[in-house]
Write a structure and sequence with these properties.
Blueprint (H helix, E strand, L loop, with lengths): L11 H6 L3 H10 E9 L4 H11 L4 E9 L5 E5 H4 L9 H9 L8 H4 L13 E5 L8 E6 L9 H21 L5 E8 L11 E7 L4 H17 L3 H12 L2 E4 L2 E5 L9 E5 L5 H14 L5 E6 L9 E7 L12 H6 L2 E3 L3 H9 L3
Parallel strand pairs: 3-13
Antiparallel strand pairs: 1-2, 2-3, 4-5, 5-7, 6-7, 6-11, 8-9, 9-10, 10-12, 11-12
Helix pairs in contact: 2-9, 7-10
């Protein structure tokens, strides 16, 4: 296994070469990468300002990692990756959360609609029917606390339990609906239209596109290589020092993150998943993250298979700069500032 001491994404070539033969072959089966130098020439008039803000930047090492199976692709800039991983938390965010108290989600039974088959209520949350639905069966899981940033495992477990009870009830209402999806968008940077803490549950007669894509990848990979794709991805991350176990949950600081500080988990169900999600969110909180997305990809109702959970930082809520641009939308390659090797050490420090 590769060393865990102060590695960086720019160390990827030597880390891969230090792997055992079987591990190295597995890496190159799924991934390819390059490291190139970007060069620029600074006018004298801006040299002092640029050096103070960015350091030495006239030569920048760029690392591009591509998953050859899924075509997930990420660009890391050494200059960006060297920046401190922690972030400032704007007082404006705290103020806006406080000022939004008294919203409809603070009184959901009177100020939100119910589904045709009723509400599901847990200790820490209650469902409402989404008033502007993504799909024909779409619920909002409204947290009983107003603060949208939650990292307590007990509360997260309740959100997941209520979601699964809602999936069951929705399936009784429409037996064709067997493909569930859980997501949690925290604050407006992550796509939430209401500040009050809430997650979302959907179930449909067809799998959503990304879920179907993963299933096709797994079938193709098993047919060609005779193994489970996600287990092989985890084996690579573990060998590089980017993956570790929390009880039965496999956790990875992802090698091709879609955006900042992305973490991917593999589990056999929701048992223990709340603790793992809570671990990541506690780490995020310590690092100044206040806006994030959580998505849980799960098998069809009535079947048993792995669960894939993805969590990603969506950036400073007070920033006017979007974290997703043309590279992500159209080039299909994400531009990321955070280094997964630094992130995994931060995650381990929470255990």
């Amino acid at each position: 296994m590769a060393s865990r001491n102060s590695n960086s994404i720019t160390d990827l070539p030597k880390l891969v070469e230090s792997l055992k033969n079987a591990e190295r072959s597995l890496f190159y089966r799924i991934y390819r990468f390059y490291i190139e130098t970007g060069r620029l020439v600074l006018p004298d008039a801006m040299r002092e300002w640029t050096t103070a803000r960015f350091g030495e930047c006239e030569e920048q090492r760029i690392v591009r990692v591509t998953n050859k199976v899924t075509y997930e692709s990420t660009l890391f800039n050494e200059l960006r990756a060297k920046r401190p991983i922690d972030a400032k938390v704007s007082e404006d965010t705290h103020r806006m959360i406080e000022e939004s108290k008294g919203c409809p989600f603070c009184n959901p039974k009177e100020r939100t609609p119910a589904d045709a088959f009723g509400r599901i209520e847990g200790k820490h949350c209650i469902t409402a029917s989404n008033i502007a639905k993504y799909d024909y069966l779409h619920a909002v899981i409204i947290f009983k606390g107003h603060d949208p940033f939650v990292c307590e495992a007990e509360k997260i477990a309740d959100y997941l339990d209520v979601a699964f009870e809602w999936f069951r009830k929705a399936n009784e209402y429409d037996s064709r609906a067997i493909y569930p999806f859980f997501m949690w968008n925290c604050l407006w940077r992550a796509g939430a239209s209401i500040i009050h803490g809430h997650a979302q549950a959907l179930i449909s007669r067809e799998p959503y596109g990304r879920q179907e894509f993963y299933e096709n990848v797994r079938k193709w990979y098993a047919k060609i290589y005779g193994s489970e794709y996600f287990e092989d991805v985890y084996a690579i991350h573990e060998a590089l020092g980017l993956g570790f176990m929390l009880e039965s949950i496999k956790i990875m600081a992802y090698l091709t993150p879609v955006k900042e500080k992305e973490v991917v988990m593999i589990s056999s169900g929701i048992s223990g998943l709340a603790e793992a999600i809570g671990l990541v969110l506690k780490c995020y909180h310590r690092l100044g993250v206040r806006s994030f997305n959580v998505a849980v990809f799960m098998p069809p109702l009535g079947s048993e298979d792995i669960f894939i959970t993805r969590i990603v930082d969506r950036g400073d809520p007070s920033s006017r700069t979007a974290d997703v641009g043309g590279m992500e939308l159209y080039a299909g390659t994400s531009v990321v500032a955070s280094d997964p090797f630094r992130l995994v050490e931060e995650l381990r420090s929470e255990i």
